[in-house]
Amino acid sequence: MDWDRRHVLGLLATSATVGLSSRLQSSDGSDLVFGQSGDSVARSAQFLSATDPPDATEELISRLPDSQAARLTASDSHRVDEFGHSVALSATGSTALVGAPAAAGGTVEVFARRQLVWRRQTRLLPDDGRRGDRFGRSVALSEDGTTALVGAPNNDTAQDNFAGAVYVFTRSRFDDPRDSDWQQRAKLVPEDGAPGEAFGASVALAADASTAFVGTSEAASTGYVFSGRGDFWRQDGTLTAPDDQPSLLGRSVALTADGSTALLSARGEALGYVFTQSGRRWRPTATLTADVEDGTDPNRPVTLAADGSTAVIGTPQASANGAVSRGAVYIFEHSHDGWTRHGPLTLPDADSLDRLGESVAVGANGLVVLAGASGEAEPHGTKAGAVYAFLRRRDGWSQQRQLVASDGGSLDRFSLVALSGDGSTVLVGAPSANPTGLRRRGAAYVFGPTS
Known about the structure:
By secondary structure, this protein is mainly β. It has a domain at 1-74 and 261-451. 4% of the residues lie in helices and 40% in strands. It has helices at 5-14, 56-62; strands spanning 30-33, 44-45, 68-72, 86-89, 95-100, 107-114, 117-124, 138-141, 147-152, 165-171, 182-188, 202-205, 211-215, 222-229, 232-240, 253-255, 261-265, 270-278, 281-289, 302-304, 310-314, 329-335, 338-345, 356-362, 368-373, 386-393, 396-403, 416-419, 426-430, 443-447. The strands form 7 sheets. Strands 2-1-23-22-21-20 form a 6-stranded antiparallel sheet, with no helix packed on it. Strands 3-30-29-28 form a 4-stranded antiparallel sheet, with no helix packed on it. A 4-stranded antiparallel sheet has the order 4-5-6-7, with no helix packed on it. The radius of gyration is 20 Å and the shape is globular. The model is unreliable at 1-64 (pLDDT under 50).
């Protein structure tokens, strides 16, 4: 993959929240993964041989904004809300969703930026919500900021025993911070769902909001695809592991902007599965693999670049060199030859329980990756958390910057990250923060334009 105009312009857009700092540690080699119907073949390969980006890149990096623009909190919090457990941004970064799944049945707050000032716009609640639903555990937002997808994995109004549900909300005006008229339009449940599968534990939405992917977190090992708009949605498919292994498929899910490619997390040697749409059918096209020591029931957050060029998978429970759950991030780059793996990417000074990869986000064309480390102790204390930004360079990936909350404290878990489509804004959830002295009330922090 050579550096061309697309990559240069993409760097301008997607790297607007990182700057130059220390180098990232990585492995010496990488695997090139091919696959049809889930089959995979690996061979040794070095980092992609890209030519140097223009000299202007260094100048761009030196003037990228890194300022905290705002701290967002819930309007009426209780002691345990976990506000910031899930976060999402519109393409321009002017609309934000923040989930608080532990607030009674759960809530989602909508915030809007107007003239560089962030204000609470409204609160999203389901029409049939009940205490304990964990509405807001997962959120997704369309490119124009007018459609929201919210998961409630403990909801049992349609099927018994926490089968789960996902809610669709819309507003009328295109990414307009003045429009606070959000309405629930649909409730999605699987046709073949099962009790206890926690449908809605993860959600993803195409840029135009016409395709939704929903993951589960318990026994189902399934991902569900829906298509529709507004009030009318239909289930188009149920995705399962192509190798017939119990892979906890769909605990985390991601979509490309056009909704034609999906990434679903897995466990074991398979970090994730790539599915591609053909007509109304979905077929597995690749298995992304790595040898990771992260336990038998790992959490592996995933994300995809909007153009499908890059897949990112976090392994926060990964252990190495005596450091337990120090975490790592794997980056897979797609070309006509298949998928090339980079990593594991780790922190130079990684400690046990840093949990790098707790959350991951990627720029629109895959040149910038953000990864949360919920257990990072520097500079605010044990499990305060931090987010690290990495940039694609000619010789691989390098760590660029550490983002932390200006008022961070121990146990905050500042690490749940979203990146706007234009790369200008970063939103980070800290679900255990106590900005008013209430532990696990939670907060979210915006990094981006301040003037």
